[in-house]
Write a structure and sequence with these properties.
heterodimer, A: alpha+beta, six-stranded mixed sheet, four-stranded antiparallel sheet, 5 helices, B: alpha/beta, Rossmann fold, Alpha-Beta Plaits, nine-stranded mixed sheet, 10 helices, 15 strands, about 30% helix
Chain lengths: ~150, ~290
């Protein structure tokens, strides 16, 4: 599932399948040394290496490490946005076309694009005619930590 | 006057209210200090270097909540109380070492260990309480950690895994202190440190077993109760082949060597005790032990 997600952005192979490790519904990029240590221990870890993403219902919620790796790929489609649009985006809003200062790799409607503030990836969305629809942003850190009241 | 205040008086300290300055740690795994400093300055944030904490800054002024900023979300900084930044500094983990964090959630010190290790080597992090795992995992992800393997288990039982470590951080579960919690004096009883003392002895005993010869263990609490601090270290240096060494800190008072008429080992004075109004931090205690 994570590979299909990555393929939506780039066909460049920047993670070797051998280095990725699936732990339940989550994927991690695991250095060999840590992988060996984990294999020798009697209990399943809850976190190992760099977090790549998790399955939430039928889609992938990417980790920051994966977004940053995707941002380094020369083939990934990107939109660069203004400071104000960046803040609205991390508050779960879409990006209107007028707030896009630059694009890379010629995104077309329906493409998944990374949303960037300078060289910093803030999340991703679906490129549309009039806006970029927010599909995930790093403001999720605050939203997921919010206590749930019974 | 509460029973705790009377105890502090007996130990030579008059507890007065302390208003803590908010503080952050710059996460150099994700951003350099000058880069973050100039970036925040451009947004009107005034930071002041904490002289005794390596990557620490007090937030003197900020027009917005730093905990809800892009800099926070990108993992360039994390809120961390000034004294709480010191146990890892005393531990001084190095790239390539194998390190254990015995009570990891919410992961702020865990990520600090990885920062000192530059994400190289192995950090085993353990958290017993599964309700605290989401916070731990979020912080490890946000702060760009990549050399940590974390488990949901009882750190006291890790000895069964026959692993040994170069360095261990035991930031032990404790009853906290009056600066951290409103009406702390009215909410807590002496029963708590009696109960905690047993757990702390169990954990420090396990830590010493898992330490390589010559390895270092840092024991810390945010408690001001000697039963959770000096008395634990006194017990450990008498029972095990460990010695208490200098922490390298310039802040804090020496550990108490006389506690309610009980005379402790002289080594205990090498620990550091943070009486809040003297250090302008929360209450804290830090000890460094080295295994023979």
């Amino acid at each position: 599932m994570i590979w299909t997600f990555i393929d939506r952005f780039t066909d460049e192979e920047f993670i070797r399948e051998d280095d990725a490790y699936q732990l339940g519904d989550e994927w991690y990029l695991v250095p060999q040394q840590l992988f060996k240590l984990g294999k020798d221990l009697p209990r399943q870890p809850v976190f190992v290496g760099a977090f790549l993403g998790r399955k939430r219902n039928d889609y992938v919620v990417p980790g920051v490490a994966l977004l940053d790796l995707l941002a380094r790929s020369r083939k990934t489609k990107k939109v660069f946005v203004t400071d104000k649009a960046a803040w609205l985006f991390v508050c779960k809003k879409n990006v209107i076309t007028a707030s896009i200062t630059k694009t890379e790799n010629d995104p077309q409607p329906g493409d998944w694009v990374l949303v960037m503030l300078n060289d910093e990836c803030l999340g991703f969305g679906e490129f549309q005619k009039d806006d970029v629809k927010n599909m995930f942003d790093i403001g999720d850190f605050l939203r997921r930590e919010r206590p749930i009241r019974a | 006057m509460s029973v705790f205040e009377k105890r502090y008086h007996e130990l030579g300290y008059k507890p007065v209210p302390v208003v803590l300055k908010p503080s952050i740690r710059v996460n150099t795994l994700r951003c350099s200090e000058p880069e973050l400093f100039s970036r925040l300055a451009a947004k009107g944030v005034v930071l002041e270097k904490i002289p005794f904490a390596k990557n620490g800054y007090w937030v003197e002024k900020t027009p917005f909540s730093l905990g809800a900023s892009i800099e926070y979300l990108r993992g360039y900084l994390t809120p961390q109380e000034a004294a709480a930044q010191l146990p890892v500094q005393v531990l001084d983990p190095k790239p390539g070492e194998r390190v254990l964090d015995m009570a990891a959630a919410p992961g702020v010190k865990t990520s600090q260990i990885c920062q000192w290790m530059q994400n190289k080597g192995e950090l085993v992090a353990v958290e017993k309480n599964n309700r605290r795992l989401p916070g731990l995992k979020n912080n490890l992800e946000r702060l760009g950690v990549s050399n940590c393997i974390a488990f949901n288990t009882d750190a006291g039982k890790l000895v069964e895994w026959t692993l040994t470590f170069d360095k261990i951080l035991l930031d032990a579960p404790c009853m906290g202190n009056y600066v951290k919690e409103k009406d702390w004096f009215g909410k807590h009883s002496q029963k708590e440190f009696v109960r905690n003392n047993a757990t702390q002895k169990e954990l420090i005993s396990a830590a010493i077993t898992m330490l390589k010869p010559g390895g270092a263990l840092v024991y810390s609490t945010c408690s001001l109760e000697p039963e959770e601090d000096e008395l634990i270290i006194d017990w450990a240096v008498r029972k095990f082949k460990v010695r208490c060494v200098q922490t390298g800190l310039t802040i804090g008072n020496p550990g108490l060597t006389t506690v309610f008429d009980k005379r402790l080992s002289n080594e205990v004075q090498l620990c550091r005790r943070f009486w809040p109004s003297k250090t302008q931090t929360e209450g804290f205690f830090i000890a460094k032990l080295v295994k023979a």
